[in-house]
Amino acid sequence: MFSKACEYGIRAVIYIWSQSKKGNKLGVKDICKEIDAPEYFTAKILQSLARQNIVSSTKGPNGGFYIDIAQENLRLMDLVRAIDGDKLFTGCGLGLKQCSASNPCPIHHEYKAIREGLAELLKTKTLRELADEVLSGKASLHSIVS
Amino acid sequence: MFSKACEYGIRAVIYIWSQSKKGNKLGVKDICKEIDAPEYFTAKILQSLARQNIVSSTKGPNGGFYIDIAQENLRLMDLVRAIDGDKLFTGCGLGLKQCSASNPCPIHHEYKAIREGLAELLKTKTLRELADEVLSGKASLHSIVS
DNA sequence: AAAATAAAATACTATTTTATCTTTTATTAG
DNA sequence: CTAATAAAAGATAAAATAGTATTTTATTTT
Predict the structure, then answer these.
(1) Distance B4 CA to D17 C1' (A)
(2) How far is Cα A68 from Cα A25, in angstroms, rounded to an integer?
(3) Which GO terms describe its cellular component (chains A, B) (predicted)?
(4) CA of A44: nucleotide with nearest C1'
(5) CA–CA separation, A97 and A75 (whole Å)
């Protein structure tokens, strides 16, 4: 469904958010250790998100990634769009170039419902909510390490 | 969502079905012309589906692909599984190796609902239904050519 | 039997995605 | 001002997906 880049990006941003709340900045290494993601690849994703002003960063000692309070209501949708674009929310399920209610593919209506359900989910969830779930221990960003 | 191979495969099988009903066998060239898909690539997909006994084929003059009546109740789900496997129906939305109700990622429950909705759609739709929609003109397998 | 046809199999190419490594630039602590 | 630190940028590599071309095999028509 989501690309690997998007999966890592979401996990990273949720973690950054949960720590920014405490005023901490995080290095890529720390982030990747926590969310179990490849370091250099995740760095690229975060750099792209920084250019898009979704996360902030500072270089040098004590530098790292953080998220501005102003982004408190950032929706999961905004993040997915920033990384994967919106092909997931626009394209035809069977790949037709033109597919609409007036010239539908055989699963147009049903697929549209699924896709809209997904969009609704992503629009509803804010990064704040997601980070809170992790902070409260209700949800996790990595597999159990035993 | 689906891979290109899967998109072409679904369109091809629906078209083959709609013609098999009339007793016609179809060559790859004809199929690809109708569904606007790359010829050699689609051929490979169909050959794989033939090995999996989802479509049938005969070589030589008047040969081609067709679908056995016994496959009348073939579900879209079976086709998607045969081409893309079931990663779409099993994996975690955020890519966690282990993600379950007891150790959930932050979108586990909501994502599960979306995924199950999709699975339900694919299990409900039979190839017969989809082909009928195309035959009756209610749905289309290619963009409008004006 | 020979020629024609069409799928099957194999090999090859291109593009995109994922991942890693190296160099550069900015910032801060000493 | 110099070291050290950490992100930014760029270059490269590996893997997966998408797409094309060629050869082989089976079947049918003449």
Answers:
(1) 9
(2) 11
(3) cytosol
(4) D8
(5) 29
Q: Is A50 touching B (CB cutoff 8 A)? A: no
Contact B120, A113 (CB under 8 A): no
Cα–Cα dist B37/B97, whole Å: 35
Q: Using the CB atom, is residue A40 less than 7 Å from strand C?
A: yes
pLDDT per position as a tens digit, B84-95: 999 999 999 999
Asked if CATH classification 3.40.50.1220 holds for the domain at B4-136, the reply, yes or no, is no
pLDDT tens digits, one per residue of A22-79: 889 999 999 999 999 999 999 999 999 999 999 999 999 999 999 998 888 999 999 9
Whole-number Å distance between alpha carbons of A99 and A105: 6
- The answer to whether the Cα torsion of B87, B93, B95, B100 is positive or negative is negative
Rounded CA–C1' distance between B62 and C17, in angstroms: 41
Asked if the C-beta of B142 comes within 8 angstroms of chain A's C-beta atoms, the answer is: yes
Query: What are the start-end ranges of the E strands in B3-85?
Result: 56-58, 64-66
Query: Is the entire prediction scored with pTM above 0.70?
Result: yes
Q: What span, in angstroms and rounded, lies between the C-alpha atoms of A43 and A82?
A: 15
Amino acid identity, position B38: P
Q: Where are the domains of chain A?
A: 4-136
pLDDT by residue (tens digit) across A63-73? 999 999 888 89
The partner residues of B75 in beta bridges, in order of sequence, read B126
> CA A75, A81, A87, A90: dihedral to nearest 10 degrees?
40
Rounded Cα–Cα distance for residues B18 and B127 (Å)? 9
